[in-house]
Amino acid sequence: MSDYLFEMRRIVKEFSGVRALDGIDLAVRPGECVGLCGENGAGKSTLMKVLSGVYPYGTWEGEILVEGKPLKAYSVRDSEDAGVVIIHQELMLVPQLSVAENIFLGNEIRRFGGLMDYDAMYAKAEALLARLKLKDVNVAAPVMNYGGGYQQLFEIAKALAKNARLLILDEPSSSLTSAETDTLLSIIEDLKREGVACVYISHKLDEVARVCDTVTVIRDGRHILTKPMSEMTTQSIITAMVGRDIENLFPKVEHDIGDVVFEARHVTCWDLANPNRKRVDDISFQVRRGEILGIAGLVGAGRTELVSAIFGAYPGRYEAELVLEGKPIKVRTPEQAIKAGLSLVPEDRKRQGIVPLLGVGDNITLATLSHYAHAGQIDRQAELQTVETEIRRLRVKTASPELPIVGLSGGNQQKAVLTKMLLPQPKLLILDEPTRGVDVGSKYDIYKLMFELAATGVAIIMVSSEMPEVLGVSDRVLVVGEGKLRGDFPSLGLTQEQVLAAAISHAAEGPAHAA
Amino acid sequence: MQAQKVQQLFVRYKILALLIAVAIIWVFFHVKTDAAFITPGNLSNLFRQMAITGMLACGMVFVIIAGEIDLSIGSLLGLLGGVVAILTVNEGWGTWTAIGAVLVLGLLLGAFNGFVVTKMRVPSFIVGLGGMLAFRGIVLYITGSSTIAPAPDDLIALGQGFVPVELSRWIGGVIFVGMVALTVRRRMRRSKLGLQQAALWIDIARLVAIGAFIAGFIRMLNDANGIPIPVMILLGLLAVFTYVSTQTVFGRHIYAVGGNMEATRLSGVNVARVKLVVFALMGLMCAFAGIITVARTGSGSPSAGTGGELDAISACFIGGTSMRGGSGTVYGALIGALVMASLDSGMQLMDVDNSWQMIIKGVILVLAVWVDVLSGSNRNA
Predict the structure, then answer these.
(1) What is the pLDDT of residue A102?
(2) What is the pLDDT of residue B267?
(3) For residue A261, which phi and psi values (nearest 5 degrees)?
(4) Cα A39 to Cα A59: distance, rounded to the nearest angstrom
(5) Which letter, b or e, does each residue of B284-298 get, where b requires 16 or more Cβ atoms within 10 Å of its Cβ?
(6) pTM of the predicted structure, to 2 decimals
(7) Which of B267, B270, B322 sits opposite A367 (nearest CB)?
(8) Whole-number Å distance between alpha carbons of A204 and A298
(9) Distance, CA of A463 to CA of A474 (rounded, Å)
């Protein structure tokens, strides 16, 4: 058994009583690439943080063996010394520093007196990049002069500079074009031949199938299977990833679906950092009155970008044609969107949803304050009346509407943000991850409210990474993958496997439709 | 347990802690100067001295709540003061026409600062630094680096005159009756809506305290010729700015923008416009302060207002404005200005050397903000 380079045995990690990892095993041989697959929230990132020393030894149970000897890493540095280097999804480069300075950041080649030995670093950086078949790079130039594909390879060079024997790649292709991904994969194959081992985490199963020798699937923090890639197919990986029934926690209410009320045509968003890359690529769709449209897809597929472009809030360059109730509308700012009849409950509650120090009531009326004002003066009585009614209606638990919202639980904050965006009485309500970080009770309340709204004729778009939620709440499901529309399914009879298959399927196949 | 309760009380009523600090400072100086500090004459001077910093602080507190900073205001004060002096002395404009023109100019220059910050996206710290130099340069250029005097009598009256004794009594009475009416109205509304009420004795105690304060304030200043006109203007501005910050849509939006700009933008608020107006108001306050500076000294000095931005910013922070934006009060900033003015006045009376005055003021500023951080009231800011 000791032909393994690294071995993780029965890893258990708890977060305040919740088991995020429940006895997971993972083993890698020298020169082997293991694909780690699982749904959003399955525990992949947590597992890798255990392996790479982000969670120090002692904060989790189980053991890690390096060439048969136990590793007790108390920091990232300790595990790097053992040869484990993680490359995160968001690249950790300092854009203003040079390529060589980045490669040796924290690991600089010094001469006496702490001086940087630039000559040695440049020479070694060039050697490392040559190993990665990068020849036209000026190692003295700042990293920001190079695109995302190069930067990903600089990260790998940085790992090799630390004498990495095991590379952990977390969604390495999520910000790469397909040509750049291709280069990356062939370099991984080269590294394997040199004896470097890899753990490859990706939702893109075609990539996993190409570079990985072994696949490990985890689900809900549990180890599901480990098999040679030759025995697996994309389909069998998906089945293993999903493998559970939807619990019946969706208080679904029948509601009538009317005519098309909203239409988005040719929505395209360009990446902020990499202007040649499209985050959303020409997506068009329609929503009907009283319809709940789920938008599914993997993290980073472009769903949030899609809805923020519709709401006029996408920070980069984008194009979109919008039609509401048969009339084209012009929306370039959230202000215009709300006036036109659109509302968005954003994904990141803390950063985009609440104004922490303002009272619960002040947060609730923030989008509609002028409704309670005469000549700019707020009619507190009218404002408080609305606030009190809404707090009761949505069962927001707060001792007083005047207390700062930051003191409330996640679920209650989310209800307040939801109320805020409902008060403008939108014709189309967009919810981006409406139940993220929300307790089960509040989740139930939020679903119930969504069905009530749909019954009154409001069209709802819900972006969600929780597959059971998408299937349990939506009337129809759009699947987005790599910025493109990959499928449009009625939710009746739709399975998680079908959605996941559409999300993962290769771009060339075009949009899928349920038979 | 008891200490914790006291702490909670102070966090809730920051103003109480500040007023106690002012009282301690006053008593300290009173004792140290052989009872020369708390006298009608000295306090009248003290309030007049703080009026200009107070006006700047009124504008600055909005700027800081909105999450920005403006370092150009001392120079802008000098420029606008210079313009009012040139218009009245050299160009022979009528005093009121010149004042009107300078107020509009202040508003426009402030709006220009705001435009550069919001539309051209230059950080406000840099815009302020640039303005600090450029505005001072302009005032040196247009005045030819020399003092412009003498200002006309009706302008000087604005800076050195007093509100008639009888009139200030009436104003005090009206304010008190107004406060009572507001409190009664609020209690009635809140009980109608079934909202939490402050205990009756707290409201009554508050009103009695306010009444005693107004009566004492007017009586004391009337013993020394009456309320100085700059002080009366400052009190008027305090009322207007407090009203704007607590009762208007615009005021709420200032707090929201400073508290979380992204969330506010996604709520459909035009955050750039809010900030632009805040900067414009700051410019207007510079105009007020510049005019009163000329009126007090009777001349337009090219160095007027130097360092004024630091006094105003210190006043805001001592008065509990959060450095990260999103929280603060106008009256807090004015009490902050009062603390700074009291230190100035007391140390001058004690004949403390100028070097020590600066050292002590610097230490007090840092201490005051440290106490604020300790109290935890800004923890979530």
Answers:
(1) 92
(2) 94
(3) -110, -30
(4) 24
(5) bbbbbbbbbbbbbbb
(6) 0.80
(7) B267
(8) 9
(9) 10
Give yes or no for residue B11 having a pLDDT over 80. Answer: no
- Which residue type, as a one-letter code, is found at position A431? L
Is B380 at the interface with chain A, CB within 8 A?
A: yes
Are residues B269 and A366 in contact, defined by beta-carbon separation less than 8 angstroms?
Answer: yes
ipTM of the complex, rounded to two decimals: 0.84
Contacts of A404 (CB under 8 A, 6+ apart): A356, A357, A358, A359, A360, B380
Of B252, B262, B380, the CB nearest to A351: B262
Following CA atoms B236, B241, B244, B247 in sequence, which dihedral angle do they give, to the nearest 10 degrees?
A: -80
CA distance A76 to A54: 6
The helix or strand, by DSSP H or E, that contains position B182, with its residue range, turns out to be helix B165-192
Residue type, A215: V
Provide, as residue numbers in chain B, all residues whose Cβ is less than 8 Å from the Cβ of A313: 265-266
The SS3 of residue A47 is: helix
- Candidate from B194, B247, B255 with C-beta closest to A358: B255
Distance (Å) of CA B164 to CA A142, A242, B295: 70, 83, 18
B-chain residues near A387 (CB < 8 A): none
**SS3 (DSSP) at A112:** helix
Contact B16/A at CB under 8 A = no
B156 vs B293: CA distance, rounded Å: 10
Where does residue B64 fall: left (phi above 0), alpha (psi -120 to 50 degrees), or beta otherwise?
alpha
Is it the case that residue A203 has pLDDT exceeding 90?
A: no
Q: What is the Cα gyration radius of chain A?
A: 25
Contacts of B289 (CB under 8 A, 6+ apart): B52, B55, B56, B77, B81, B305, B308
Give B20's contacts (C-beta < 8 A, 6+ positions apart).
none
A466: nearest Cα among A304, A343, A300, A295: A295
Query: Rounded to an integer, what distance in angstroms lies between the CA atom of residue A229 and that of residue A223?
Result: 16
In Å, how far are A22, A339, A344 from B267, measured between CA atoms?
41, 11, 8
Give me the amino acid identity at B240.
V
Phi, psi of A144 (to 5 degrees): -70, -10
Q: How far is A217 from chain B (nearest CA, A)?
A: 38
pLDDT at site B379: 44
Lookup: tokens for A159 = 């790992």
Compute the average pLDDT of residues B29-55.
92
Span of A233-242, B5-14, B187-196 with lowest mean pLDDT: B5-14
pLDDT tens-place string over residues A104-115: 988 888 888 788
Alpha-carbon distance B126 to nearest alpha carbon in chain A (angstroms): 21
Q: For B189, name the nearest residue in chain A, comparing CA atoms only.
A: A381
Angle at B293 between CA B287 and CA B294, to 5 degrees: 95
Residue type at position A462: M
- H helices of A52-116, in order, are 76-81, 99-103
| Angle (deg, nearest 10), helices B40-65 and B229-247 | 30
Under an 8 A CB cutoff, do B326 and A355 touch? yes
Show which residues on chain A lie within 8 Å of chain B, measured between beta carbons. Answer: 311, 313, 333-335, 337-339, 344, 346, 351-358, 362, 366-367, 369-370, 373, 376-378, 380-381, 384-385, 388, 400, 402, 404, 406, 420-421, 424
Ramachandran quadrant class, A177 (left: phi over 0; alpha: psi -120 to 50; beta: rest): beta
Contact A313 B264 (CB under 8 A): no
Q: Are A506 and A281 in contact (CB under 8 A)?
A: no
Confidence of residue A185 (pLDDT cuts 50, 70, 90): very high
Which residue among B249, B253, B326 sits closest to A357, beta carbon to beta carbon?
Answer: B326
Q: Which residues pair with A318 in a beta bridge?
A: A269
Q: B73-85 vs B124-143: helix axis angle to the nearest 10? A: 30
**Which of A449, A443, A474 has its CA nearest to residue A287?**
A474
Contact A352 B259 (CB under 8 A): no
